[in-house]
Amino acid sequence: MVTLNVKSASGELDTVRGLLAEGLDEEKRRIQYATEISASKIKKYEEKYGISTKTFLGKFKNKEIEEDEDTFTWWAEERLFTELNQKLSIIENITICQS
């Protein structure tokens, strides 16, 4: 968990905390939306090729599946999906405290 201690030279601590919380909430919504789009794209590849992404990644890594535009895009989409979920996890574990 990450804890942010907020100090304000202007004395507007509640306003600053609110702005930070709103910014984090907005970024969380954006990441959730991007994750949904990414998951949808990944699902289409799974349906098209009839294998799970986990199986695809293993075969792709072992060069059992040839790299082409589709397979590279599938691989890249999975990386994006993973990175987005990592960012989402970080944001969800931030606590803003008054100092």
Textual characterization of the structure:
The protein has 99 residues and is mainly alpha-helical. Helix content is 71%, strand content 10%. Strands 1-2 form a two-stranded parallel sheet. The protein starts with a strand and ends with a strand. The mean pLDDT is 91.
Which residues sit in consecutive blocks of at least 5 with pLDDT less than 50?
none
Q: Distance between the terminal alpha carbons, to the nearest Å?
A: 17 Å
Number of helices: 3
Taken in chain order, the helices and strands follow as EHHHE
The overall average pLDDT, rounded, is 91
* Biggest β-sheet: strands ordered side by side in the sheet: 1-2
Sheet of most strands: 2 strands, parallel
Percentage of residues in helical conformation: over 70%
Q: What would you call the shape? A: elongated
Strand proportion: 5-15%
Structural class: mainly alpha
- Let me know the number of strands: 2
Rg: 19 Å
Question: Characteristics of this structure?
Answer:
99 residues, mainly alpha, two-stranded parallel ribbon, 3 helices
Secondary structure layout plus pairing:
Elements: E1 2-6, H1 13-49, H2 53-61, H3 69-92, E2 94-98
Parallel strand pairs: 1-2
Helix pairs in contact: 1-3, 2-3
